[in-house]
Specification:
By secondary structure, the protein is mostly helical. It has ten helices and no strands.
């Protein structure tokens, strides 16, 4: 459908959105090479379009799926530095933290998460990153710090769909540490 629209209306103002939706469809269908190829063209054809951060994020995720780790990291850093106000930036921060954890270790990933949480981070990404931090503290056996993070999550995100999971993990850390 989007391919047809793009062919029939090459000059439409809706074309960038259609191209992005096409890329998203290719990503969902695991055609990562196609996402990357279309994304490169998009960057040239629509260099100033508001969808560029989202296009770059799809490309970064596709690079990861094709094991092009350096390309993924470079793309994520580009998103973070050039598009600081976009949601794609914060999604990139979360992905970068996962990469740091995988390639540089949990201690470096913990410090990265702590530093990111000091910034003015949107609520939805704060919840994700704070929970990652709690999980990493649990991974290294620091149940006290995990408990502090989980208490913060329970307090700040008391309407979250994941509240039950947070409460369960918080209770577990309290039992392990003897705190109440």
């Amino acid at each position: 459908l989007f391919s047809r629209f793009i062919e029939l209306y090459p000059n439409s103002t809706l074309r960038p959105e259609a191209v992005y939706k096409l890329m998203d469809g290719f990503h969902q269908n695991q055609n990562y090479e196609r996402v990357i190829a279309i994304g490169r063209v998009f960057q040239t054809d629509y260099a100033n379009n508001q969808l560029i951060p989202d296009v770059l994020l799809l490309m970064a995720k596709s690079y990861l799926k094709t094991n092009s780790i350096n390309d993924a990291q470079n793309t994520i850093e580009l998103i973070i530095s050039r598009y600081p106000e976009s949601n794609a930036r914060w999604q990139g921060v979360v992905i970068r933290n996962e990469l740091i954890h995988s390639f540089r270790g949990v201690s470096v990933a913990i410090q990265d998460a702590v530093n990111q949480l000091k910034l003015n981070i949107p609520r939805q990404f704060e919840e994700i990153l704070r929970f990652r931090l709690a999980e990493m503290y649990m991974e290294i056996g620091d149940d006290n710090r995990a408990g502090v993070e989980l208490a913060e999550i329970v307090s700040r995100f008391d309407r979250s769909d994941r509240l039950t999971e947070y409460l369960r993990l918080y209770a577990q850390t309290l039992l392990k540490t003897g705190n109440d």
